[in-house]
Specification:
By secondary structure, this protein is an alpha/beta fold. The protein is built from four helices and five strands, in the order βαβαβββαα. A five-stranded mixed sheet has the order 1-2-3-4-5, with helices on one face. The protein starts with 10 loop residues before the first strand and ends with a helix. The mean pLDDT is 90.
Length: 145
């Protein structure tokens, strides 16, 4: 759900891995659009592996897909302020205690993905499968003659 707090732009809180589902994140059931995303996560179970870096990369991709800045607070992982283009504005490295003081970037106008979701990808797959089906039919006809 989108949360409204006096003095803050409306935001969508996301717990841990919820950020990997941009279609679910962009859906607003309240009619209020989020202007930024807050990703609270515990990356401790990843240890010093690729996990925290991959989780951050996914958050960056979500920011770019939806055109929304992301504030990522990770207890042991990589905390970061991510702009709506997916660029890291400020961050704390893996395993570092502290805080980052960065201004919240403004959101972009709704992106193609935030307006259409997975529909373009679905249509592209449908066109490709139709093309393969047509090719198979034409090959079958050519071989049967």
């Amino acid at each position: 759900r989108v949360v409204t707090v006096p003095g803050l732009p409306a935001f969508r809180p996301l717990i841990c891995y919820e950020i990997i589902f941009p279609r679910e994140v962009s859906a607003s059931r309240s009619g209020v659009a989020a202007e930024w995303l807050l990703n609270l996560t515990n990356d401790a179970w990843f240890g010093d592996s690729f996990g925290p870096r991959q989780h951050l990369a996914i958050a960056r991709m979500c920011a770019a897909e939806l055109g929304l800045p992301v504030v990522r607070a990770a207890n042991t992982g990589i905390s970061a302020m991510i702009d709506p283009y997916g660029r890291i504005v400020d961050s704390l490295p893996l395993g570092t205690a502290g805080y980052a003081d960065a201004p919240l970037p403004a959101p972009l106008a709704p992106t193609l993905y935030s307006r259409t979701g997975d529909l373009p990808a679905f249509l592209l797959v449908l066109v490709m499968l139709s093309g393969l089906g047509l090719r198979a039919v034409l090959a079958f006809r050519a071989n049967s003659n």
